[in-house]
Design brief:
With about 425 residues, this protein is an alpha+beta fold. It has 13 helices and 10 strands. Helix 3 crosses helix 4 and helix 3 runs antiparallel to helix 8. This is Molybdopterin-binding protein.
Length: about 425
């Protein structure tokens, strides 16, 4: 078996399957994972802040940038991870498979790292299409796997640190083997002779037939060059990013072919994630008796849509930026939330709970810290792109604030309640 494993490694040998190439692709993949992790944490805590957390409201496109980067980096992981697996594939045929307990732990951690990486980027991609063919909650599992993945990445880097340090800037010497495994001996004739002697006592056995096949199959040099491999990886990353990133980054909108959202498509020129039908609010939202209730210090203040329109109106340019990675800049017009807060006597440190007409849903109730409440760009929006707010965008009123995920820009507003400090 040892000789057969050696022959498998010999057949897979290639100029690109060496420690230097593994280090080059590995550091790109590691950077993509770290970008995903950092921007993912920011998105998570915006949606579920810990006590005492406060967030920047400027620049207004901050979440548009961070979440767009999160999705782009996650998509780039696909070709990078496949390239890394291609490079290290011969290591699967190392013999013996496990040399020691430490080696067992190392190989187990690598197997977990690869498996969790594939699961994480696949479910992340499917989330951008809002398709969930699994029985578990996406947000919680994606968040937990992110921590596990980063932990395994740290372990992997720690184990491979001597190799990474050696080949971080150094190209492989011509005298070094072109594959990663240390188990493949360069003395092929001696290895095969050992196998032949072992198999000679079993005439007609499978070992003899395998030896005949090996002897009849000359070793052929790989046609994959280092330059060609790196070019292929670069083209792959450019393609998957370039054909999807336009859903967030306007300069790439023309090449947005595969992303689930396209800029400018939707009611009033803005895409829609959750419709009024899905939220089951169409009838109550169109009720002529609707009024926005603002609660502070136990007192309720009701504002009809006509009363809101009669107040000072402010126009702002802010993006809708969703966790799925798409975003759209738009012009909003309505009443500044800080003006409403002042009308009901709320102090400058008051945070609010936003409640939608939607009775069910993970974000039918959200919280807004005082930093957003007091930002002059935060509106109770009544108009979008010069027209009355469309039902699908939250009529009769919705919240819009700088630097917030789309799921927190509450549509179909019903109540705004002060949160006790």
């Amino acid at each position: 078996m040892r000789r057969l494993m050696y022959e498998a490694q010999r057949a897979l040998a290639s100029p690109v399957r060496n420690p230097r190439m593994a280090t080059v692709i590995g550091r790109l993949l590691g950077a993509a994972f770290l970008l995903c992790f950092g921007t993912g944490l920011y998105s998570h805590f915006l949606q579920q802040p810990l006590p005492g957390m406060h967030f920047a409201t400027r620049p207004a496109y901050l979440y548009q940038f961070t979440q767009g980067t999160h999705i782009v980096a996650g998509i780039a992981c696909f070709p990078l991870l496949l390239a890394k697996l291609y490079i290290v594939f011969p290591a699967l045929f190392a013999w013996p498979p496990v040399k020691s307990f430490a080696n067992f732990l190392e190989r187990t951690s690598i197997a977990l790292f690869v498996g969790i990486s594939l699961v994480q980027i696949v479910i992340g991609l499917l989330n951008t299409y809002q398709w969930y063919p699994w029985p578990f909650p996406f947000r919680q599992v994606h968040f937990a796997l992110g921590w596990v993945l980063i932990g395994l990445l740290v372990i992997h880097i720690g184990v491979k640190l001597p190799l990474i340090t050696r080949y971080w800037r150094k190209a492989p010497d011509a005298s070094e083997p072109e594959h990663l495994s240390e188990a493949a001996s360069p003395d092929r004739s001696r290895n095969l002779e050992e196998v032949r002697l072992w198999g000679s006592s079993r005439p007609g056995g499978i070992t003899g037939r395998l030896l005949d096949y090996i002897d009849a199959t000359p070793a052929t040099p790989s046609r994959v060059s280092r330059r060609g491999f790196l070019t292929t990886v670069a083209v792959g990353v450019t393609a998957v990013v370039g054909l999807t990133a336009g859903q967030t980054f306007t300069p790439l909108d023309a090449t947005n072919v595969f992303a689930p959202r396209k800029k400018g498509l939707g009611p009033q020129g803005v895409p829609v994630n959750r419709t009024s039908t899905q939220a089951k609010v169409a009838e109550v939202a169109m009720d002529a008796g609707w009024a926005l209730t603002v609660v502070y210090a136990g007192t309720e203040h009701r504002f009809t849509r006509a009363q809101l329109l009669a107040m000072e109106q402010t126009e702002v340019r802010l993006p809708i930026a969703c966790v799925e990675g798409w975003s759209q800049m738009a012009t909003w017009r309505g009443v500044r939330l800080m003006d409403l807060a002042d009308t009901v006597g709320a102090d400058a440190g008051t945070s609010f709970r936003l409640i939608s007409l939607e009775e069910r849903g993970s974000f039918s109730k959200t919280q807004m810290g005082h930093e957003y409440v007091r930002d002059p760009l935060t509106l109770v929006a009544l108009e979008l792109n010069g027209d009355t707010l469309h039902l699908e965008h939250g009529y009769p009123a919705r919240m819009i604030a700088p630097g917030r995920p789309g799921v927190l820009q509450t549509k179909w507003l019903s109540r705004i309640e002060a949160i006790d400090a």
